[in-house]
Amino acid sequence: MTATLPHPTQGTGRVVWFTGLSGAGKSTLATALYQELQARGEAVELLDGDAVRENLSKGLGFSKADRDTNIRRIGFVAGLLAKHGVTVLVSAISPYRDTRNEVLATLPAALEVFVDAPLEVVTERDVKGLYLKALAGEIPHFTGVSDPYEAPLTPDLHLRTDQISVQEGVQQLLERLGLGEA
Ligand SMILES: Nc1ncnc2c1ncn2[C@@H]1O[C@H](COP(=O)(O)OS(=O)(=O)O)[C@@H](OP(=O)(O)O)[C@H]1O
Ligand SMILES: Nc1ncnc2c1ncn2[C@@H]1O[C@H](COP(=O)(O)OP(=O)(O)O)[C@@H](O)[C@H]1O
Protein backbone atom coordinates (compact mmCIF):
# COMPACT_ATOMS: atom_id res chain seq x y z
CA MET A 1 0.00 0.00 0.00
CA THR A 2 1.31 3.45 -0.85
CA ALA A 3 0.99 5.93 2.03
CA THR A 4 -0.14 9.44 1.16
CA LEU A 5 2.28 11.85 2.77
CA PRO A 6 1.57 15.54 3.25
CA HIS A 7 3.47 17.95 1.05
CA PRO A 8 6.73 18.58 2.95
CA THR A 9 6.48 22.32 2.77
CA GLN A 10 2.93 23.14 3.81
CA GLY A 11 2.88 25.06 7.06
CA THR A 12 3.01 28.29 8.94
CA GLY A 13 6.66 29.02 9.74
CA ARG A 14 8.59 31.64 7.87
CA VAL A 15 11.83 31.19 6.00
CA VAL A 16 14.27 34.10 5.75
CA TRP A 17 16.75 33.27 2.99
CA PHE A 18 19.99 35.28 3.04
CA THR A 19 21.86 35.23 -0.26
CA GLY A 20 25.06 37.06 -1.20
CA LEU A 21 28.78 36.82 -1.76
CA SER A 22 31.13 35.23 0.74
CA GLY A 23 31.89 37.89 3.34
CA ALA A 24 28.83 39.99 2.48
CA GLY A 25 27.43 39.50 5.99
CA LYS A 26 24.91 36.66 5.67
CA SER A 27 26.06 34.73 8.76
CA THR A 28 26.53 37.88 10.82
CA LEU A 29 23.02 39.13 10.10
CA ALA A 30 21.38 35.71 10.36
CA THR A 31 23.06 35.08 13.73
CA ALA A 32 22.08 38.51 15.05
CA LEU A 33 18.47 37.99 13.93
CA TYR A 34 18.51 34.47 15.41
CA GLN A 35 19.56 35.86 18.80
CA GLU A 36 16.93 38.58 18.66
CA LEU A 37 14.12 36.15 17.77
CA GLN A 38 15.27 33.64 20.36
CA ALA A 39 15.25 36.34 23.03
CA ARG A 40 11.64 37.03 22.08
CA GLY A 41 10.73 33.37 22.63
CA GLU A 42 10.25 32.50 18.95
CA ALA A 43 10.98 28.99 17.71
CA VAL A 44 13.86 29.76 15.38
CA GLU A 45 16.50 27.69 13.59
CA LEU A 46 19.56 28.66 11.59
CA LEU A 47 20.76 26.72 8.57
CA ASP A 48 24.18 28.22 7.95
CA GLY A 49 26.16 27.37 4.81
CA ASP A 50 29.29 26.26 6.64
CA ALA A 51 27.43 24.04 9.14
CA VAL A 52 25.29 22.55 6.39
CA ARG A 53 28.35 21.71 4.33
CA GLU A 54 29.93 19.96 7.33
CA ASN A 55 26.85 17.84 7.92
CA LEU A 56 23.89 17.63 5.55
CA SER A 57 25.96 18.39 2.44
CA LYS A 58 29.30 16.89 3.45
CA GLY A 59 31.28 15.90 0.38
CA LEU A 60 29.65 18.36 -2.00
CA GLY A 61 31.87 20.77 -3.91
CA PHE A 62 31.25 24.05 -5.70
CA SER A 63 30.23 23.03 -9.22
CA LYS A 64 26.80 24.32 -10.27
CA ALA A 65 25.37 20.82 -9.83
CA ASP A 66 26.74 20.49 -6.29
CA ARG A 67 25.70 24.01 -5.26
CA ASP A 68 22.20 23.33 -6.62
CA THR A 69 22.01 20.06 -4.68
CA ASN A 70 23.11 21.92 -1.55
CA ILE A 71 20.48 24.62 -2.00
CA ARG A 72 17.70 22.10 -2.72
CA ARG A 73 18.63 20.15 0.43
CA ILE A 74 18.58 23.30 2.53
CA GLY A 75 15.22 24.25 1.04
CA PHE A 76 13.79 20.83 1.82
CA VAL A 77 14.88 20.94 5.46
CA ALA A 78 13.75 24.56 5.82
CA GLY A 79 10.33 23.53 4.53
CA LEU A 80 10.06 20.69 7.03
CA LEU A 81 10.94 22.98 9.94
CA ALA A 82 8.63 25.74 8.72
CA LYS A 83 5.79 23.22 8.56
CA HIS A 84 6.06 23.00 12.33
CA GLY A 85 5.92 26.74 12.83
CA VAL A 86 9.66 27.30 13.14
CA THR A 87 11.14 30.51 11.76
CA VAL A 88 14.03 29.29 9.62
CA LEU A 89 17.00 31.48 8.79
CA VAL A 90 19.05 30.25 5.83
CA SER A 91 22.50 31.66 5.17
CA ALA A 92 24.04 30.36 1.96
CA ILE A 93 25.62 32.05 -1.05
CA SER A 94 22.96 30.39 -3.24
CA PRO A 95 24.44 32.04 -6.33
CA TYR A 96 22.11 30.77 -9.05
CA ARG A 97 18.89 32.71 -9.57
CA ASP A 98 16.99 29.85 -11.21
CA THR A 99 17.69 27.43 -8.35
CA ARG A 100 16.99 30.04 -5.67
CA ASN A 101 13.68 30.91 -7.32
CA GLU A 102 12.77 27.26 -7.72
CA VAL A 103 13.44 26.49 -4.05
CA LEU A 104 11.88 29.68 -2.69
CA ALA A 105 8.73 28.93 -4.69
CA THR A 106 8.29 25.68 -2.73
CA LEU A 107 8.33 27.56 0.58
CA PRO A 108 4.96 29.06 1.51
CA ALA A 109 6.27 32.08 3.44
CA ALA A 110 9.77 32.91 2.31
CA LEU A 111 11.59 36.22 2.33
CA GLU A 112 14.56 36.61 0.03
CA VAL A 113 17.17 38.89 1.57
CA PHE A 114 19.95 40.12 -0.69
CA VAL A 115 22.99 40.72 1.53
CA ASP A 116 24.96 43.01 -0.70
CA ALA A 117 28.44 44.47 -0.54
CA PRO A 118 30.64 45.22 -3.56
CA LEU A 119 33.38 42.79 -4.47
CA GLU A 120 36.02 45.38 -3.47
CA VAL A 121 34.54 45.51 0.03
CA VAL A 122 34.26 41.76 0.59
CA THR A 123 37.77 41.34 -0.82
CA GLU A 124 38.99 43.96 1.63
CA ARG A 125 37.15 42.27 4.52
CA ASP A 126 38.40 38.83 3.43
CA VAL A 127 36.95 37.30 6.61
CA LYS A 128 38.37 33.84 5.92
CA GLY A 129 41.37 34.79 3.76
CA LEU A 130 39.72 33.07 0.80
CA TYR A 131 39.63 36.05 -1.61
CA LEU A 132 43.40 36.41 -1.43
CA LYS A 133 43.75 32.77 -2.44
CA ALA A 134 40.97 32.95 -5.03
CA LEU A 135 42.48 36.04 -6.67
CA ALA A 136 45.82 34.23 -6.77
CA GLY A 137 44.08 31.42 -8.65
CA GLU A 138 44.40 28.97 -5.79
CA ILE A 139 40.65 28.33 -5.38
CA PRO A 140 38.85 27.44 -8.61
CA HIS A 141 35.19 28.40 -9.08
CA PHE A 142 35.24 30.99 -6.32
CA THR A 143 32.00 32.99 -6.29
CA GLY A 144 32.44 36.56 -7.52
CA VAL A 145 36.00 35.90 -8.68
CA SER A 146 35.93 32.92 -11.01
CA ASP A 147 32.33 31.73 -10.62
CA PRO A 148 29.04 33.59 -11.10
CA TYR A 149 26.86 35.29 -8.54
CA GLU A 150 23.42 36.12 -9.88
CA ALA A 151 21.90 38.82 -7.68
CA PRO A 152 18.16 38.69 -6.96
CA LEU A 153 16.18 40.95 -9.32
CA THR A 154 13.35 41.64 -6.87
CA PRO A 155 14.51 40.69 -3.36
CA ASP A 156 12.08 41.19 -0.48
CA LEU A 157 14.84 43.08 1.30
CA HIS A 158 18.11 44.51 -0.03
CA LEU A 159 20.71 45.22 2.65
CA ARG A 160 23.84 47.12 1.61
CA THR A 161 26.16 46.00 4.38
CA ASP A 162 28.86 48.46 3.32
CA GLN A 163 26.41 51.28 4.01
CA ILE A 164 24.50 50.19 7.12
CA SER A 165 25.46 48.67 10.48
CA VAL A 166 24.58 45.15 11.60
CA GLN A 167 22.08 46.67 14.03
CA GLU A 168 20.41 48.64 11.24
CA GLY A 169 20.23 45.46 9.17
CA VAL A 170 18.54 43.58 12.00
CA GLN A 171 16.14 46.48 12.48
CA GLN A 172 15.13 46.36 8.81
CA LEU A 173 14.71 42.59 9.00
CA LEU A 174 12.45 42.83 12.05
CA GLU A 175 10.36 45.50 10.35
CA ARG A 176 10.06 43.39 7.20
CA LEU A 177 8.92 40.49 9.39
CA GLY A 178 6.34 42.73 11.00
CA LEU A 179 8.09 42.49 14.37
CA GLY A 180 8.77 46.16 14.89
CA GLU A 181 11.76 47.53 16.73
CA ALA A 182 14.77 45.60 18.04
N1 LIG B 1 34.67 28.04 -4.56
C1 LIG B 1 34.01 28.61 -3.54
N2 LIG B 1 33.07 29.56 -3.78
C2 LIG B 1 32.41 30.12 -2.75
N3 LIG B 1 32.60 29.79 -1.44
C3 LIG B 1 33.53 28.84 -1.16
C4 LIG B 1 34.27 28.21 -2.18
N4 LIG B 1 35.12 27.33 -1.61
C5 LIG B 1 34.92 27.39 -0.29
N5 LIG B 1 33.96 28.29 0.00
C6 LIG B 1 33.42 28.52 1.36
O1 LIG B 1 32.15 27.89 1.37
C7 LIG B 1 31.15 28.80 1.81
C8 LIG B 1 29.97 28.84 0.84
O2 LIG B 1 29.20 27.72 1.00
P1 LIG B 1 27.67 27.78 0.59
O3 LIG B 1 27.11 26.45 0.95
O4 LIG B 1 27.02 28.97 1.19
O5 LIG B 1 27.73 27.93 -0.99
S1 LIG B 1 26.58 27.64 -2.06
O6 LIG B 1 25.37 28.31 -1.58
O7 LIG B 1 26.39 26.20 -2.14
O8 LIG B 1 27.06 28.21 -3.33
C9 LIG B 1 31.75 30.17 1.87
O9 LIG B 1 31.35 30.64 3.12
P2 LIG B 1 30.72 32.08 3.40
O10 LIG B 1 31.92 32.97 3.44
O11 LIG B 1 30.06 31.94 4.72
O12 LIG B 1 29.74 32.45 2.32
C10 LIG B 1 33.25 29.95 1.76
O13 LIG B 1 33.83 30.07 3.03
N1 LIG C 1 26.34 45.87 8.12
C1 LIG C 1 26.97 44.70 8.23
N2 LIG C 1 26.24 43.56 8.18
C2 LIG C 1 26.88 42.35 8.26
N3 LIG C 1 28.21 42.19 8.40
C3 LIG C 1 28.98 43.31 8.45
C4 LIG C 1 28.38 44.60 8.36
N4 LIG C 1 29.36 45.53 8.42
C5 LIG C 1 30.52 44.84 8.55
N5 LIG C 1 30.29 43.50 8.57
C6 LIG C 1 31.36 42.49 8.73
O1 LIG C 1 31.46 41.75 7.50
C7 LIG C 1 31.85 40.40 7.78
C8 LIG C 1 30.82 39.47 7.17
O2 LIG C 1 31.21 38.13 7.39
P1 LIG C 1 30.15 36.94 7.38
O3 LIG C 1 28.94 37.31 8.16
O4 LIG C 1 30.88 35.70 7.76
O5 LIG C 1 29.76 36.90 5.81
P2 LIG C 1 29.09 35.71 4.99
O6 LIG C 1 28.32 34.86 5.93
O7 LIG C 1 28.21 36.40 3.98
O8 LIG C 1 30.23 34.98 4.33
C9 LIG C 1 31.93 40.27 9.30
O9 LIG C 1 33.27 40.42 9.70
C10 LIG C 1 31.07 41.43 9.78
O10 LIG C 1 31.46 41.89 11.06
Automatic annotation (TrEMBL):
UniProt entry tagged with the keyword Transport: no
- What EC number(s) does this enzyme carry? 2.7.1.25
Q: Could you name the domain of life of the organism this protein comes from?
A: Bacteria
Pathway(s) it belongs to: Sulfur metabolism; hydrogen sulfide biosynthesis; sulfite from sulfate: step 2/3
Return the InterPro entries for the record: APS (IPR002891), APS_kinase_dom (IPR059117), P-loop_NTPase (IPR027417), Sulf_AdTrans/APS_kinase (IPR050512)
Q: Which Pfam families match?
A: APS_kinase (PF01583)
Describe the reaction catalysed, as an equation: adenosine 5'-phosphosulfate + ATP = 3'-phosphoadenylyl sulfate + ADP + H(+)
UniProtKB keywords:
ATP-binding, Kinase, Nucleotide-binding, Phosphoprotein, Transferase
Q: Which GO terms describe its molecular function?
A: kinase activity
Give, as one word, the top-level EC class. Answer: transferase
Where's the active site on this chain? S94 (phosphoserine intermediate)
> Where, in this chain's numbering, is ATP bound?
G20, L21, S22, G23, A24, G25, K26, S27
Domain (APS kinase) ranges: 13-159
Against PANTHER family, the record matches this protein to: SULFATE ADENYLYLTRANSFERASE
Q: Could you tell me what this protein does?
A: Catalyzes the synthesis of activated sulfate.
Q: What protein family is recorded?
A: Belongs to the APS kinase family.
Q: What is this protein called?
A: Adenylyl-sulfate kinase
